């Protein structure tokens, strides 16, 4: 295996197999350094526990009993459940009285066609 001097190599000059080899070496080195760091932290924790006269298990027991911060993720739930009420229709098609519209949401096809033909929305108001 050809060793690549990373400090003097322009990565653009390397072919794909050399780049893959370099990436593998980098990942291996990262894993080794992370493992060494964790081992060092464990050793430090053991020394601190011994210096304080407690066991590591006793020290760790305190961590497992920590309560969560109380912050929850996600949407907040409303205190009172509200139900959607059916809204009375505000507009009616004079040519077909079964076609109504509450005035909310998109315009129905029948009212859109009438408005495009020059009618006024107030012409369809239900006056009761």
Task: Please describe what this structure looks like.
This protein is mainly alpha-helical and 128 residues long. Among the domains are: 54 residues; 34 residues. The protein is built from three helices and two strands. A two-stranded antiparallel ribbon has the order 1-2. The model has no long low-confidence stretch (mean pLDDT 84).
Instruction: Count up the helices.
Output: 3
Which regions have little confidence, pLDDT < 50, spanning 5+ residues? none
The helix fraction, in percent, is: 40-55%
Largest sheet: 2 strands, antiparallel
Order of helices and strands: HHEEH
Q: How much strand content do the residues show?
A: 5-15%
Outline of the structure:
Helix content is 42%, strand content 7%. It has 3 helices and 2 strands; from the N terminus they run ααββα.
Write the layout of secondary structure elements.
Elements: H1 16-52, H2 56-64, E1 91-93, E2 96-101, H3 109-116
Antiparallel strand pairs: 1-2
Q: Which terms would index this structure?
A:
128 residues; mainly alpha; 3 helices; 42% helix
